[in-house]
Design a protein that fits this description.
- This protein is mainly α.
- The chain contains 4 helices and no strands.
- Helix 1 (about 25-55) runs antiparallel to helix 2, helix 1 crosses helix 3 and helix 3 (about 70-95) packs antiparallel against helix 4.
- The relative contact order is 0.10.
Length: about 140
């Protein structure tokens, strides 16, 4: 005969619908996304270097692609991802020394990483454009 089983109420496992996103959670995800973006951006850098080695015609073609507004946006995003990922690595290095692990310090370092990555990227592009006479 079949026995009647009683269902036991089990707790739900934590999920995004339970936790509100914290800055350190967002930064962890963003660090992984910028790492993936750097992988694909480095393929663009390799394409540019290969075009340079192939001669003037391929080099001119690739430069024209990067000079297009969409290409400029991709290059700006790549440089931001590079700066942001680097600063995120420095933040992790600080944490690896055992410093900055109190929650207010974690939050401050996360916000500082965002602000500095944006500021440094804009400054990098401003200097680059000024040196080329385009600013």
């Amino acid at each position: 005969m079949a026995e009647a089983r009683q269902t036991v109420e089990r707790p739900l496992s934590p999920h995004l619908s339970i936790y509100k996103p914290l800055i350190n959670m967002v930064m962890s995800i963003l660090h992984r996304l910028t790492g993936a973006a750097l992988y694909f951006g480095t393929l663009l850098l390799a394409a540019w270097l290969i075009a340079t080695a192939m001669g003037e015609v391929p080099f001119t073609y690739v430069n024209a692609l990067f000079a297009h507004p969409v290409g400029q946006l991709v290059l700006f995003g790549y440089s931001w991802a590079l700066v942001h990922h680097m600063l995120g690595g420095i933040r992790h290095l600080i944490w690896d020394t055992g410093r900055g692990l109190q929650i207010w310090q974690v939050n401050a370092l996360c916000w500082l990483t965002i602000l500095c990555s944006i500021s440094l990227t804009v400054a990098l592009w401003a200097v680059g454009l000024a040196l080329r006479g385009q600013l």
